[in-house]
C-alpha cells in the first residue's frame, strides 16, 4: 500500500486538523490519543511520511524512540503510572488503523485493565487537561 498523504495523522502534522499536542521538535510530534486506552495515552510520530516500520527511515526511528522515551518519563511522572507500555502496530492484520507510523506510549496502573484499542472518544476537556499535565512533566 502506498503512503496516503491525506491520512489523519498527516493532516494533523500539517496543522489541518487539531490535536492535543504535548511536544514537538524538528523530527517528531507527540499528542494525546483521542481514544485513549488509559489516562495519559500519548502517540509519537515522525514528521517524515512513513506508513509503518518497514518504510521508516532509521534515523527517524531513532528520533521517535528518543521522543517516546521522553514521553514515557513524562506520563509516568504526570500520572504516577505504575508502568508504561510502548506499542506499535504494522499493517491492518497487526491492528494498525492509521497508516502513518506512530508509537503508542500507554501508562499502566496496577489493577486497572486497558480500555479497547481505538474504541471510544475521550472528552476534549479531559484530553486538554491530560496534555497540560504531560507538557508540564516533559523532561528538560
Ligand atoms: P493504530 O491502530 O495503531 O493505527 O492507532 C491509531 C490510534 O490513533 C488509535 O489509538 C486511535 O485512538 C488514535 N486516533 C485516531 N484518530 C485520532 C485523532 N484524530 N487524534 C488522536 N488520536 C487519534
Structural summary, described in words:
- With about 140 residues, the protein is an alpha+beta fold.
- The protein has a single domain, classed as 2-Layer Sandwich (HIT family, subunit A).
- Helix content is about 30%, strand content about 20%.
- It has three helices and five strands; from the N terminus they run αβββαββα.
- α2 packs across α3.
- It is globular and about 40 Å long.
- Adenosine monophosphate binds next to loops.
Low-confidence stretches: none
Q: CATH top level?
A: Alpha Beta
> How does CATH name the architecture?
2-Layer Sandwich
CATH topology: HIT family, subunit A
- Fourth-tier CATH superfamily name: HIT-like
- The strand order across the widest sheet is 1-2-3-5-4
Gross morphology is globular
Radius of gyration, Cα only, in angstroms?
Answer: 14 Å
Largest sheet: 5 strands, antiparallel
Classify the secondary structure makeup into a structural class: alpha+beta
> What letter string, H or E per element, gives the SSE order?
HEEEHEEH
The strand count comes to: 5
Please estimate the helix content.
Answer: 25-40%
Summarize the structure.
The protein has 140 residues and is α+β, with helices and mostly antiparallel strands. It is 30% helix and 18% strand.
Secondary-structure map with pairings?
Blueprint (H helix, E strand, L loop, with lengths): L7 H6 L7 E4 L3 E5 L9 E5 L11 H22 L3 E5 L15 E6 L15 H14 L3
Helix pairs in contact: 2-3
The site of adenosine monophosphate (AMP) has 12 residues, from loops.
Key terms:
globular; HIT family, subunit A; 5 strands; binds adenosine monophosphate; 3 helices; five-stranded antiparallel sheet
Amino acid at each position: 500500500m502506498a503512503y496516503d498523504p491525506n491520512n489523519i495523522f498527516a493532516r494533523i502534522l500539517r496543522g489541518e486538523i487539531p490535536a492535543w499536542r504535548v511536544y514537538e521538535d524538528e523530527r517528531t510530534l507527540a499528542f494525546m490519543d483521542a481514544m485513549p486506552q488509559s489516562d495519559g495515552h500519548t502517540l509519537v510520530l515522525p514528521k517524515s511520511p512513513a506508513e509503518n516500520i518497514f518504510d521508516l527511515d532509521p534515523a527517524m526511528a531513532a528520533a521517535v524512540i528518543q521522543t517516546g522515551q521522553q514521553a514515557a518519563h513524562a506520563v509516568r511522572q504526570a500520572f504516577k503510572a505504575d508502568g508504561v507500555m510502548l506499542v506499535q502496530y504494522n499493517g491492518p492484520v497487526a491492528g494498525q488503523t492509521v497508516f502513518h507510523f506512530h508509537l503508542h506510549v500507554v501508562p499502566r496502573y496496577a489493577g486497572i485493565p486497558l480500555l479497547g484499542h481505538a474504541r471510544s472518544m475521550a472528552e476534549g476537556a479531559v484530553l486538554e487537561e491530560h496534555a497540560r499535565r504531560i507538557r508540564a512533566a516533559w523532561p528538560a
